Amino acid sequence: MSGPVFSFSVVSRDPATSARLGRMVTAHGEVETPAFMPVGTRGVVKTLTPDELAAAGSSIILANTYHLWLRPGHDLVREMGGLHRFCGWPGPILTDSGGFQVFSLAPLRKIREEGVEFRSHLDGTPLVLTPEKSIEIQQALASDIMMAFDECPAQPSTRETNIEALERTTRWAERCLRARETGRGTGALFGIVQGGLFEDLRRRHAEEMIPLGFDGYAIGGVSVGEPRAEVHRIVHASVGLLPEDRPRYLMGVGRPEELVEFVGAGVDMFDCVMPTRNARNGQLFTSRGVVNIKREEYARDPGPIDAECDCPTCRGYSRAYLRHLYRTGEILAARLNTLHNVYFYQRVMARCREAVRQGCYDEFRREFLRRAAEDPGDRARSQSE
Asked: Was domain 36-243 assigned CATH 3.20.20.105?
């Protein structure tokens, strides 16, 4: 079996924060970090083509093991030459292990030591996803970065629940490493640190996972029901527990302000459905907060979504027209809104990288957060509607 095609190096560090600029090399290309990965759960970032993703500044995307296992099936994807060829994306792909579905499909599953028993959310077919099966599927997809199968309890949960989950996650992580060694593929493998809202459990689990020798490490089990203040507390407490010489991946987070904040804490990689899902719901991220395009005040607004944005949506279309598309249910509304949001997220990450490169990350962070909070009324209303 071929070994993983993967390396990571820290290129530069900000002098006043923990922000860092990195270079990650995979079998399908390089990624400059910090990086945001648009979520392409079923092998597609909804409404966008691979060319549009690349033009928006994306260098790596995320796909989901569980959903591709169910449809179209990992054996079919392997037969078609792997996920990159199948979906037309030539760059790196990170695949979630299916562990998130242990959380999100809780009513349809039972956790055993062997793995997780599911009832398919499509037709009720009984399924068993084990650490070994997760790695088999991810290798069939030709993933560049595979995630170890883990148990992610909803938060807040009891201390006992989190201890059981992290202990099982460690045992499953060891099985994932063995499965990677005996399987086929060149993908890197990242371990996931759990522990819920308990800082001492986070430390304990990091101390268990790091000696296993993963290619990178993720902070898991955040943004799964806990208050935002708790997310910030746990992320800041967890980042420094992870190795300096490996990528640090914060799973499932988040808002642009959170990305900027957590880059300053030392996080290298992010993913979140917010830019795509919120776009389909008419919520657009801008340099001065969230615009809810369905609101009446935009019906005759000739301006772009964000005057400081040069994405195709902002260059070519007014708020009035985008509101019209959304209100009439046109497919183009989802496409244009998604293109803007993905572009905006990637522009934020590019500005983060440049601020680290210039050694002025703290100044950039403060100014970004100040401007993002200039219209809190609109932001609060848009998130509640």
From this structure: yes
Radius of gyration of the chain (CA): 20
Catalytic one among 150, 215, 271, 306? 271
Q: Please, what is the end-to-end C-alpha distance for the chain in angstroms? A: 52
Task: Note if 271 is an active site residue.
Answer: yes
Of 96, 150, 215, 268, the catalytic one is 96
Is residue 320 within 8 Å of residue 294, measured between CB atoms?
A: no
Domain boundaries, the chain: 36-243, 279-379
Q: What is the pTM of this model?
A: 0.94
215 included as an active-site residue? no
Q: Which of 265, 55, 241 is nearest to 166 (CA)?
A: 241
Q: In the structure encoding, which two tokens stand for residue 171, read together?
A: 């045992």
Residues paired with 289 in a beta bridge: 286
Q: Along the 385 residues of the chain, how does pLDDT read in single tens digits?
A: 467 999 999 999 999 999 999 999 999 999 999 999 999 999 999 999 999 999 999 999 999 999 999 999 999 999 999 999 999 999 999 999 988 777 777 777 889 999 999 888 888 888 899 999 999 999 999 999 999 999 988 888 999 999 999 999 999 999 999 999 998 889 999 999 999 999 999 999 999 999 999 999 999 999 888 899 999 999 999 999 999 999 999 999 989 999 999 999 999 999 999 999 999 999 999 999 999 999 999 999 999 999 999 999 999 999 999 999 999 999 999 999 999 999 999 999 999 999 999 999 999 999 999 998 875 334 434 333 3
